[in-house]
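hey
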């Protein structure tokens, strides 16, 4: 490695990076690298690029390492960045390449920052969409179909039957043996409402058997009663008179 070539490159780098570059030795430097064209509100990321020049430089690649200075960097991200630098360095063998490597690193750091910001934006948009759908589902409710109603009805009837059985059990538990017997007898009797409903059902069944003609039995009874009352008011004449 020609010292003159390296000294000349150091002078150029120091003029470009007056505050970012630190000379460690005659063959080693470190440069603070941050993304180019960083936008307001985007995550800040800054790396330190360590460059150790080999004896064969610029015909051989320098030794490159990187470490985070600001912001978080995953190990996989650092490895990808360094692999990109080594690939680019291989394309520039024989020429002073440090400035090219730093420019490449700044560009790819900017891409990394933009990619992270896009992921955050998409995640926020997806969360907003899910929250909106959940809110709409609350106001819209669940559409009721015949199948869903029947399923609900079966479940509801079972729950109500279980509830009535439990209430009946609790009620019987508080009765004396004699009161339980009386209660069972009363349970076996039909209420007035039940008798009326059964009579109505029988009347409907008879009307259907007669060809669908509805007969009002009460009207018939009132007419028949009226005829019997009129029988008492009639005058009969005998032929013998």
């Amino acid at each position: 490695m020609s010292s003159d070539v390296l000294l000349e490159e150091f002078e150029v780098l120091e003029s470009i990076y007056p505050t970012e570059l630190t000379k460690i030795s005659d063959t080693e430097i470190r440069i603070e690298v941050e993304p180019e064209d960083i936008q307001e509100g985007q995550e800040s990321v800054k790396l330190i690029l360590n460059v150790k020049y080999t004896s064969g430089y610029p015909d051989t690649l320098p030794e490159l390492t990187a470490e985070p200075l600001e912001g978080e960097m995953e190990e996989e991200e650092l490895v990808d960045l360094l692999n990109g630098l080594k690939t680019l360095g291989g394309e520039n063998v024989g020429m002073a390449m440090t400035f090219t490597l730093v420019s490449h690193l700044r560009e790819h750091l900017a891409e990394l920052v933009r990619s992270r910001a896009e992921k955050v934006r998409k995640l926020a948009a997806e969360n907003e969409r899910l929250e909106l759908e959940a809110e709409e589902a609350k106001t819209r409710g669940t559409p009721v179909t015949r199948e869903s109603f029947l399923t609900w009805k079966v479940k509801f009837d079972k729950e109500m039957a279980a509830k009535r059985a439990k209430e009946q059990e609790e009620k019987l538990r508080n009765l004396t043996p004699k009161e339980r017997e009386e209660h069972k007898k009363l349970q076996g009797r039909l209420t007035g409402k039940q008798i009326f409903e059964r009579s109505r059902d029988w009347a409907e069944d008879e009307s259907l058997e007669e060809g669908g003609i509805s007969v009002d039995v009460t009207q018939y009874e009132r007419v028949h009663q009226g005829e019997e009352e009129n029988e008492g008011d009639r005058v009969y004449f005998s032929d013998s008179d």
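The CA atoms of residues 68 and 74 lie 9 Å apart. Residues 207-215 have pLDDT under 50 and may be disordered.
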